[in-house]
Amino acid sequence: MHIKKTLLEHYSLFKDDPILSLDRLSSQGYCNDNYLASTLSHKQYLIRHFNQQGIDRRSEYRLQRLAGKKQLTAKPYFLDLSNDIMVTEFLSEGTHRKRLARYDLHHLALTVYKLHKLRFRAHRFNPRRSLVIKGKKLRNAVRCAERSANDDVLSHNDLNPLNILFGNRVKVIDWEYASINDRYFDLASVCEEFRLKKADEIYFLKRYFRHKVKIDQKKLEAYKIIYRSLCEQWFDMNTPPSL
Question: Which residues form the Aminoglycoside phosphotransferase domain (predicted)?
Fold first, then answer.
C-alpha cells in the first residue's frame, strides 16, 4: 500500500500547514515503509507506514516519546493505528555508517548508556521463547545467559547500522523491538553489526562502562551468538521465497 497525501491531509497537524510533497525514501527499514512529507511552511516529517503485524505500536509510540524527550530519537507527533501510521520528526542531520571511528564509538557508547537508563515498563525478552534453539553452540550460549547475573535494562534490541544516525548527536530510530533485556544484548549487537575489531570492541565497552566494572567477556560472547541466531531466524521467517 502506498500512502497518499489525501489520507494525511485529514490530520490536524497538517490542517493549517498543508503537505506539498510526499516522497518514499530510498532507504527503507524492514518493518515500515517510510515517506518524507514537506509542508507549505518548509517543515519536514517522517511518515512511517507499518508493514509488519504483531508489534505493540502503542508501546513503541510511548517509548519513542520518552526517548525523544531525552534527545535519543526523533520526536513522535501522533499514532494512527487504524491506518497503521506514525508521524514523527524527520531527522535531516546524521548519516548511517557501517564502519566506525573511535570518535563514533565513543559517542555511540554514551548514547547506548543513556538509552539503558530510560525507565519504561515493557515485557522482558526471553531467548527460549524468541528462538528456535538448535545446535550445541546456541544451547550453551542461552544457558550461559540464563546463568549470568541479572543485569536488566530497557534495551533497544535492534542496534543495526540502519537504525543509528551519526551527526552532532547519535540518535537511534525504530524502537518496535525494544524490551527489558540484559544490557549485554545491545552491546553484543553493536559489536556484531559493526564487526568491531578486538581493540575497538574493548574501547567501546570501556567507554560504555566508564571503567567502573569488569567486562564480562563470557556473557558478551554468549549474547553475540544469541543475537546472530536471532537475526538469522528473523530473516528466514520474513524474507519471501525467491521465484
Answer: 144-195
Residue 39 has pLDDT above 60, yes or no: yes
Q: CA-CA distance, 109 to 113, in Å (whole number)?
A: 6
Domain 5-89 has CATH 3.30.200.20: yes
- In sequence order, what E strands does 90-243 have? 152-155, 164-166, 170-172, 179-182
State residue 239's pLDDT score.
67
Q: Taking a C-beta distance cutoff of 8 angstroms, is the pair 128, 142 a contact?
A: yes
3-class SS shares of the chain: helix, strand, coil, % to 5: 40, 20, 40
Residue by residue, DSSP assigns 30-65 as SSEEEEEEEETTS-EEEEEEE---S--HHHHHHHHH
CATH code for the domain defined by 102-238: 3.90.1200.10
Between CA 43 and CA 203 the distance in angstroms is: 39
Domain ranges of the chain: 5-89, 102-238
* 3-class state of residue 76 by DSSP: strand
